[in-house]
Write a structure and sequence with these properties.
Layout lengths: L22 H4 L5 H12 L6 H8 L5 H40 L5 H48 L21 H4 L6 H20 L13 H14 L10 H21 L9 H9 L8 H29 L3 H19 L1
Helix pairs in contact: 3-8, 4-5, 7-9
């Protein structure tokens, strides 16, 4: 049975429905210009703090660090010299022991061969020892040169700027930081000092220095990095010997920050200061204290002394007597008062 063939065309496929579109179909494909712009923006992005962070943690040209590294190399060279000298002495002792132990058994030829080997080893060690000593002498010269250059740098700046030493005493009690820095003469200097304070405070926070502990417990490495970055950012800080101005500003800042934490209660005071809280609770808060308590007493004493002096001068002027007669008159008055009391 043959299948009947029809000329009807196959049914057409249904067109996809556009009523529900997926998320990918809603979003237009990214064009080449947009992709290029994004990649250029990423590649050309500049971190404004990259230079600062690099300067904080990758400080170059520090004379102090050079001295430390040279001293380390010097110590290593000295240790190498000691080791080589010890090895040479051990070899000599071994040679003497061999001669004493096997002198009767060895022939003249064998003894001469062992002696030659030992002498060759000793000569090699001696050469290495001489080279190490020469290298050590060169390192010592470099250390002396760097130390002398550092000493000269603390006394006077290379650009001819006058160096300012640290004043005696403590800041706040014996001297004023702003005045000793020479930035208290006019309004422009005061604004510059305020800008220095703000920037140094930012550097303290950016360097991650722990302000919750006293300044004496902060690591010396963190202090050195902070000083170096501060000098690089503000060249005026190079004038102050051993960075005393930067140190005092930082100490003042972290001390005030700790006191604020103690007052607000979010920072626990150290155990050695616990007695202060007990004394404060026992004190009369309404009574004046400190300078406020001393001023009224001083004013009363000065006014009383002035009134007494004025009264005495008025007596002397009214009677027309001199100082000698005035003293005699006082003695007579005192005797009259004593007799009247009797």
């Amino acid at each position: 049975m043959q299948r009947r063939q029809t000329n009807n065309p196959p049914p057409a496929r249904r067109a996809p429905s556009h009523n529900k579109l997926t998320r990918d179909e809603n979003q237009p494909p990214p064009t080449k210009d947009v992709s290029t712009a994004l990649s250029d923006r990423i590649n050309n992005h500049i971190d404004p703090y990259s230079d600062e962070m690099e300067s904080k943690y990758n400080i170059e040209g520090s004379t102090y660090q050079d001295v430390v590294f040279l001293r380390q190399e010097n110590d290593l060279a000295l240790k190498q010299i000691e080791d080589q000298a010890a090895a040479n002495a051990a070899l000599q002792r071994e040679l003497l022991a061999l001669k004493a132990r096997f002198g009767s058994d060895l022939t003249n030829q064998g003894l001469s061969m062992s002696t030659e080997v030992a002498s060759d080893n000793r000569n090699e060690l001696s050469d290495e020892l001489e080279k190490a000593k020469a290298a050590n002498i060169e390192l010592l010269k470099q250390v002396d040169a760097l130390m002398s250059a550092r000493q000269q740098g603390t006394n006077s700046d290379s650009d001819g700027i006058e160096m300012i030493p640290r004043p005696p005493g403590s800041a706040g009690n014996n001297f004023n930081i702003q005045d000793e820095m020479g930035l208290g003469r006019n309004a422009e200097d005061r604004e510059r000092y305020k800008a220095l304070m703000r920037n140094i405070r930012d550097l303290v926070l950016q360097a991650g220095i722990n302000w919750e502990v006293p300044w004496a417990k902060v690591p010396a490495e963190a202090k050195g990095k902070l000083y170096a970055v501060a000098r690089k950012r503000h060249p005026i800080l190079k004038r102050y010997v051993n960075d005393w101005a930067t140190e005092e500003i930082v100490k003042q800042y972290i001390k005030n920050k700790r006191c604020h934490g103690y007052t607000k209660g979010f920072l626990e005071p150290p155990a050695e200061y616990a007695y202060l809280k007990t004394n404060s609770s026992k004190r009369d808060q309404s009574a004046p204290r400190g300078r406020r308590n001393k001023i009224p007493k001083a004013v009363v004493a000065v006014s009383k002394k002035a009134a007494q002096k004025k009264k005495t001068s008025a007596k002397a002027g009214s009677s027309g007597q001199g100082k000698t007669k005035l003293k005699k008159q006082r003695v007579v008055d005192e005797e009259d008062e004593a007799m009247s009391d009797a």
